[in-house]
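A quick word before the example. In earlier lectures we treated sequence and structure as two separate objects. From today on, think of them as two lines of the same record. Here is Ketimine reductase mu-crystallin written that way.
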Amino acid sequence: MYYDEFAVKENLSLPSLLEVLSDVLYRYSKHDPSLQQPLRSILSINGQQNALLNLPCIDIHLGYMCVKTITSFPESSPAIDGAVSLFNSNNGRLLLIADAKEITARRTATASFLATQLLAFKKWKNEQKENAILTILGCSVQGRAHLDVFTQLFKWNKIYLWSRNMTHAINLQSDYSSKLSNIEILKDLNDNRLQQSDVICTCTASEEALIGLKQVKKGVHINAVGSFRETMRELADDLMLSSDTQIIVDSKESAMKEAGEIIQSKAKIMAELGELIHNDKFSNDICNEKITIFKSVGIAVEDLAAAIVLYESLKK
Ligand SMILES: NC(=O)C1=CN([C@@H]2O[C@H](COP(=O)(O)OP(=O)(O)OC[C@H]3O[C@@H](n4cnc5c(N)ncnc54)[C@H](O)[C@@H]3O)[C@@H](O)[C@H]2O)C=CC1
Ligand SMILES: O=C([O-])C1=[NH+]CCC1
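And the structure line, produced from the sequence above:
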């Protein structure tokens, strides 16, 4: 009944997760009445950054209900802890409880990969696809998960890692040295290798912008993962507000309440990720010159997708 982080990692197939994630995000953005997801609750402790988060949702169409309860304690390691519970929506039975750290890490990175497929791969010509460069900023749980998922699902020509604490980046590079020989470390964010990157994933808990317009190239795709409070941000206003930037979010409702970059810059959201799925018009309109930003804060239907994939794989 309870599956720990190792069981989650072993049984959560990434291609299946990508498929179920696309389906639920598509239906979420279409306001499918069989899918219910209220805004999550974030209860702060003593006005501090420590918080208890509750993310429920019901999917009558697929026959499941899910609730993830996690703590977010940025000074603890790991910062996120908790559990995901999956229920049958026809009879109310509890089906599975699983470690939320691993589910959160993998579903977030897979959502970023889906955005990269829809917003970057579609606009690239073959040559760019073969020589693509990935950069990951922040090398803790999310940074690690992004490296793992992005390299399992795509072959990158080069990968650059940066972390505020350089030892974390070096450790991550060393943990992958037997599998990947194309990882390099960026000492700082003014390194011009950042400007060569085709895809950048920002995976930090920063409260100050880490990158702005000058540090990135035309047409870059950014997955901005870290912020989920008004006071947090990883991207500067010039990047958010440039006329060359198109901003996509996981949920407009959540982003306007939680995404620091969007709240502080008042940048216009172009669409939800789910609106781009099965949408040929949008794919044809994506312009190679535009910067695309997928700002995620994390939503319950993503945890539901992961819990369903896990449950159905364990049931076999
Ligand atoms: N979008 C989403 O769906 C999700 C977002 N998150 C958020 O992503 C972020 C990363 O998550 P974890 O790796 O689990 O957190 P973590 O606490 O393990 O790691 C935080 C990382 O941010 C770095 N950092 C903190 N302040 C910084 C600053 N001012 N400048 C540069 N780097 C800084 C730390 O060095 C560390 O590498 C967190 O803010 C977390 O809340 C987490 C889960 C899901
Ligand atoms: O969606 C999620 O689980 C989280 N988003 C930010 C912290 C945790």
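Notice the following. The two ends are 15 Å apart (CA to CA). We will return to this example when we discuss secondary structure assignment.
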